[in-house]
Structure formats: C-alpha cells, structure tokens
Amino acid sequence: MRDVLEVFKSPIETFFSAVMVMDRYLHEKKESLKIEELHEIGVTSILIASKYSELEPLTVDLMHRKASHGKVGIKNIIEREKEILNTLKFEVAVPTVNECSETFLSMICYKFPKMKIHREQIHLNSIELMKTAMLNYRFCFEMKPT
Questions:
Q1: How far is CA 51 from the centre of its chain?
Q2: Given CB 3.0 to 4.6 Å as the disulfide criterion, which of 11, 25, 33, 128 pairs with 37?
Q3: Which CATH architecture is the domain 2-87 placed in?
Q4: Rounded distance, CA 37 to CA 34, Å?
Q5: What is the pTM of this model?
Q6: CA 99, CA 141: separation in Å to the nearest integer?
Q7: DSSP at 112
Q8: Hey, where are the domains in the chain?
Q9: Is the distance from CB of 57 to CB of 51 less than 8 angstroms?
Q10: For 8-12, 67-71, 96-100, 133-137, which range has the lowest pLDDT when averaged over its residues?
Q11: In terms of C-beta density within 10 A (0-12 exposed, 13-18 middle, 19 or more buried), how is residue 127 classed?
Q12: DSSP code, position 143
C-alpha cells in the first residue's frame, strides 16, 4: 500500500486514510479472507482514501491497470468499494494518526515557540515513525522499551 501510494505521489494523508479504511473494514467484517480478497480490499481502500483526501483522486482504471497489475478487475473494485462504504456506513472521513500528530505538534509549537524552527523535521520524523508502526507488527507489539 505504501509503495503504491509513493509511486502515484499521493499525499501521506491518503496512506493513513487507506490503512484506516482497510483496518476498520476488516474489523467490521470479522471473516476469513483469501489473499486475493486482501489485495482487492487494499487496492479499493487506496481508491476510497484517494477520493476523500486528494483534489485529483486516483481512478478505478488506474487502480486496475497499475496498482493491481490487472489482477483485480474494474467490476470487482467497484463492487468492493460499495461493500466497504456500506460496511463503514460511509463514515470514511475520520481523523487519522497523521492529523492527530499535526494537532499535537501545533500545540507543542504554540506552548514552546522555539520549537517552531524544528517543526518540519519533527513532523517528518513522526510520519516515518507512524508509517513504521502501522506496517510493522513487531515494532508495535513485541519490542520492549529500553
């Protein structure tokens, strides 16, 4: 998911939204899936997130041809999009970890004005940490603090 969005030069918010859409959908479905279905859900989650996050969203055709390399049909993407949106009751535009981080960082910079000069670097570091945490189970749940 991360690699696909980097290739398409999508904003980082699209990545966090896509992960959230997929996680929430899988949580609600609570059923076994085949690996092909997981790929289809990931591609469709990217499409949905793109529609909510970007001024020029990715298209179904692009997701079919480039993101899934033709392995997920256009009709399947459209049907899965309907299913995901209905399952989530169209509640897709929810705050992501990135938005929470931005808000927290703004509050810190307001409280400690000298931090403003480091704000961009702190934000970039926090994005990398959040991406690692979201994509690496071991990082989140198995590593112990030193």
A1: 12
A2: 33
A3: Orthogonal Bundle (1.10)
A4: 5
A5: 0.76
A6: 23
A7: S
A8: 2-87, 97-141
A9: yes
A10: 133-137
A11: middle
A12: P
- Flag whether pLDDT at 7 surpasses 70: yes
CB contact at 8 A, 2 and 131: yes
Angle, vertex CA 88, rays to CA 83 and CA 91, nearest 5: 130
Asked if 46 and 64 touch (Cβ cutoff 8 Å), the reply is: no
Average pLDDT score over the chain: 84
Measure the CA–CA gap between 80 and 89, rounded to whole angstroms.
14
**Which tokens is 40 given?**
């289809």
Q: Which amino acid is at 110?
A: Y
Cα-based distances in Å from 67 to 4, 61, 77, 115, 141: 6, 9, 11, 39, 29
CA atoms 58, 92, 14, 80: torsion sign: negative
